[in-house]
Amino acid sequence: DYSQIEMRIMAHLSEDEGLIQAFREGEDLHSFVGSQVFGVDPDDVTAEQRAKVKAMSYGLAYGLSSFGLSKQLKISVDEARGLMKGYFDRFGGVRDYLRDVVAQARQDGYTSTIEGRRRYLPDLSSDNRQLRDMAERAALNAPIQGSAADIIKRAMLDVQAGLEEHGLASRLLLQVHDELILEVPAAELEQATALLKERMGRAAELSVPLDVHVGRGRSWHDAALRGRGRTGLLRDGAHGRRAPPAARGPRGRRTAPARRLRAGGRPGGPPPRRHLRGLRAAADHVARPHRRRVA
User: Fold this and answer.
1) N or C: more exposed end of the chain, with fewer CB within 10 A?
2) Annotated active-site positions, please?
């Protein structure tokens, strides 16, 4: 998958020198931005500050307001407004881009991706404020998300061509957002990994490099975790299955998928076989997934 593809596209489209510098030098983006916003050294950015900056950076691409940011981070509107002001003061290219892209869309009636695909937004001139606000958020987001879709589609085509050129038995199974999922024989792991990094990395010519992460595993879940270097997993001792930390609720309680893991099932799948009593019991479980059967 691609690392921070939306923020890289934001840097490219906005031509903001600060963001471009961070990506070209391989900096931790959110720590770098946090150091600029809070006026500290990147190594001194706290986890809380980094989380705030990360939420704000991605939220700006969706037209997030200071009120929306305050709700998301559970801070006051004034503090959220101050964060956004600090961000825009130091990354003026992003501020100008977000302002100009809406104005240009209102003039043209549409926005475009880096490949020239258009999204028409007639509601930008609507008398209905709610419709107009929604169209403005779409005008902010469509070039970024649409360009990310352009890039992954080009990468998908190029990867498939590469598999055929090299006569590999590996198969391209699925594309999910910024990820490509392949089924790869063990003997082709190294060759397929190199091909993915090369073909995905050249899918677009941006002012910042495309960073490609490749994970391996017997399932999509395991490959995604290893590709992103995530740790601190919840392991079920009886079955050796894993679930990410998010499987626990805010008070440390296991969520429904995690409870199913402990009972011997799999997240998102049917309940353990011992809980089923024929097809009628299975249908009852699907219809009422939160209802627990009593033996």
Assistant:
1) C
2) 1
Q: Which residue has the tokens 């990867």?
A: 159
pLDDT in tens, the chain (295 residues): 998 899 999 999 999 898 898 888 888 888 888 888 888 888 888 888 888 888 888 887 777 888 888 888 888 889 888 888 888 888 889 889 988 999 999 999 999 999 999 999 999 999 999 999 999 999 998 999 999 999 999 999 999 999 999 999 999 999 998 999 999 999 999 999 999 999 999 999 999 999 999 999 888 888 877 665 543 332 223 333 333 444 444 445 545 544 444 444 444 454 444 443 443 444 444 444 444 444 3
H-helix or E-strand containing 85?
A: helix 77-90
Nearest to 147 by CA among 1, 290, 293, 9: 9
Separation CA 163–CA 200 (nearest Å):
13
Q: How far apart are CA 257 and CA 238, in angstroms?
A: 16
